[in-house]
Design goal:
The protein is mainly alpha-helical. The protein is built from eight helices and no strands. The chain starts with a helix and ends with a helix.
């Protein structure tokens, strides 16, 4: 179960960042204007986004490490998600086991190079299957309620530990919007 918690903790980070951004959309960004060069450089923007994400993840990890109530709530949500995935006909444990096995094979120097593309394709397929299982679980109203409650409790704890949490999330949202604008401008200009 510890392995599942480790894998799901990555998912919580994604859920947190994806789920909290809409919560803060109405809040002012509070960021100074960037130079035109920075605004149009997607690589610099991605680096900045990664830095902000890393800071938010560090706050999240610290909060989780020091809050047994949140840990219990996260564990209950993980179990509910697994049960819901299984009820929807998915086998997330088997997918996780296979993904770990494939990752080990891909990193093993003794793996036949001719097999690498097939292993990578199978890994992508397993990842896709697991994402479909997660989406099916997250479509369940009971899972949605549990996730929303967990995310609100986590956000509150993060705010208490680091008052800049909302500012960091808003900054990440603003950078994400800038990146979308850059991508749209470049794809529209071709």
């Amino acid at each position: 179960m510890k392995r599942i918690s480790r894998i799901f903790s990555k998912a919580w980070a994604v859920l947190l960042l994806a789920g909290l951004i809409p919560v803060l959309q109405a809040q002012p960004r509070g960021q100074a204007e960037r130079s035109l060069e920075q605004q149009s450089d997607p690589h610099a923007l991605l680096r900045e986004m990664e830095e902000v994400q890393q800071e938010l993840l560090q706050i999240q990890e610290s909060v989780m490490a020091h809050n047994p109530e949140l840990q219990a709530q996260a564990q209950a949500l993980q179990e509910l998600m697994l049960q819901t995935m299984q009820a929807e006909g998915y086998e997330p444990i088997q997918s996780l086991d296979r993904m770990e096995q494939l990752e080990r094979q891909l990193q093993d120097d003794e793996t036949d190079p001719a097999e690498l593309s097939g292993l990578a394709a199978e890994l992508r397929s397993e990842q896709q299957r697991l994402m479909q299982a997660e989406q099916a679980a997250l479509a369940n109203p009971e899972v949605q309620r549990a996730r929303d409650q967990f995310m609100e409790a986590l956000l509150q704890a993060m705010r208490e530990q680091e008052p800049r949490t909302d500012e960091l999330i808003a900054e990440l949202q603003a950078k994400n919007e800038q990146l979308r604008d850059i991508v749209s401008a470049h794809s529209g200009g071709n």
